[in-house]
Write a structure and sequence with these properties.
The complex is a heterodimer of chains A (353) and B (81). With 353 residues, chain A is an alpha+beta fold. Chain A is 32% helix and 25% strand. Chain A is globular. Classes of the chains: A alpha+beta (353), B mainly alpha (81).
Chain lengths: 353, 81
């Protein structure tokens, strides 16, 4: 009997996609050949309707509705779909799923995600602490609760331009205090405080997606340099690379945190060739399909770890393989849209059935 | 200069002149002369010896070749960060 895998993050918006659709695509191309259930939060999350990669789509309650509501919905959906593995893909929901993981295990739903403590370790406001523990350099970072900080920070040694970042999402470079305050209010309005101030370093960003085995090892990794960006700074095209220092940093991070699950390391190589840790995301990135493209299907690897399989070390991945993203339209019948709006689920037999 | 010469050994070089750096992810194109320099740099770490080998292939003075190679390596450095 084939596996059923539930994947969140179906918000495959063109300029800033959630990773869920790419994870589902990787799974559909793996030898596991699973049935994939997509979990979204909005009726217009496009991947809910992508029948090539997602067999059935359902809506979940927003994280702000609390974990009881989330667990009740998952329990209801599990009774109907009997999913074997659940892969959360969004930063904002990771803490909820981490806290619910033992309960989900008791229900027969496997996850392979970091625990609450591990998640807190990589929180963006604790980056310097993590960097010190791993011996990896990182830019000065500080949690900011009041916008006035940006008018007084130069007296504390900060220099413009500096990065202003949300705790979960969004980041923008501010060239002066007025710009920083405007960015602070925009991000705080959407995601709340704290907002993070981070020293800006001139250099080239490189990224690594990987899976920590939960025992201190890095089970697999793919490295990438973005070659084209959207207006929001998200990768629209990228090329696989092989950088030993970046790989070492990821191994060190897994060793120190005993990381369990998907991760993305964002690092920056400065003009002098030094690497700096910019951010660690506690889930797969939206470009994760490149992992299947280079022959190291990381979502497949994560599912196998969740199932308790003993895995052989993955071979190094080839450098020089590109991804180039494109946008396409899902055609959705009114009946399908009605069904997800009213009942929170797509029709069983597809968008145009 | 020496570091850039050493780093150039990791480059994937196509006969079309298309060059890819697997560490930085950068790609660029070089002309026929650049291709000759990169091929020599794959096996030669010493700049002076590299210039001598080029002088055997091209009708130009050592001084001129040395200046052009230094200029080429300076530009190459920008792609190998």
């Amino acid at each position: 009997m084939s596996l059923t895998i539930a994947v969140t993050g179906m918000n495959a918006r063109a300029d800033n996609p959630g990773p869920g659709l790419a994870v589902a695509r990787c799974l559909k191309e793996s030898a596991l050949a699973p049935r994939v259930i997509g979990f979204g939060y909005e009726a217009l999350d496009p991947a809910l309707y992508h029948r090539g990669f997602v067999d059935r789509g359902y809506l979940l309650p927003y994280p702000s509705h609390g974990e009881d509501a989330l667990l009740a919905r998952l329990t209801e959906l599990h009774e109907r779909e009997h999913f074997d593995v659940l892969i959360p893909c969004l930063d904002a929901e990771m803490q909820s799923f981490a806290r619910l993981a033992p309960t989900l295990t008791g229900m027969g739903i496997r996850t392979f995600i970091p625990n609450s403590h591990q998640l807190a370790l990589r929180s963006k406001d604790r980056l310097p602490e993590l960097a010190a523990a791993t011996g990896i350099s990182s830019p000065r970072t500080q949690a900011v609760y009041q916008a006035n900080f940006f008018h007084t920070c130069e007296a504390q040694g900060w220099r413009y331009p500096l990065m202003v970042k949300g705790l979960f999402y969004d980041a923008k470079l501010a060239y002066n205090a007025d710009e920083a305050v405007a960015i602070f209010h925009r991000i705080a309005g959407e995601w709340g405080v704290p907002i993070l101030a981070q020293s800006w370093i001139l250099g080239e960003e490189i990224n690594l997606a990987g899976v920590g085995d939960g025992l201190g090892g890095l089970a697999g990794a793919v490295m990438m340099k973005k070659r084209a960006l959207t207006d929001k700074g998200k990768g629209w095209a990228g090329i696989s690379i092989h950088d030993d220092e970046l790989l070492f940093a990821a191994k060190r991070f897994c060793e120190v945190t005993k990381w369990r699950g998907g991760l993305e390391l964002e690092m920056l190589r400065d003009e002098q060739g030094n690497l700096h840790l910019i951010e660690i995301n506690p889930r797969f990135p939206a470009w994760i399909y490149l992992s299947a493209g280079v022959g190291c299907n990381l979502p497949d690897l994560l599912v196998r770890l969740a199932l308790g399989e003993q895995l052989l070390p993955t071979p190094p991945t080839p450098a020089g393989v590109l991804f180039i993203r494109y946008a396409e339209e899902a055609i959705v019948s009114l009946a399908d849209f009605e069904n997800i709006t009213v009942l929170g689920e797509t029709l069983r037999f597809g968008a145009l059935a | 200069m020496k570091n850039t010469l050493l780093a150039s050994k990791r480059l994937a070089i196509s006969e079309s002149g298309f060059v890819f750096d697997p560490v930085s992810g950068q790609s660029f194109s070089v002309n026929e002369t650049g291709l000759v320099i990169l091929h020599l740099a794959q096996h030669e770490d010493d700049l002076d010896k590299l210039v001598e080998q080029l002088a055997e292939q091209f009708d130009a003075s050592i001084l001129e070749i040395n200046r052009d190679v230094q200029d080429f390596i300076y530009r190459l450095k920008g792609f190998l960060k």
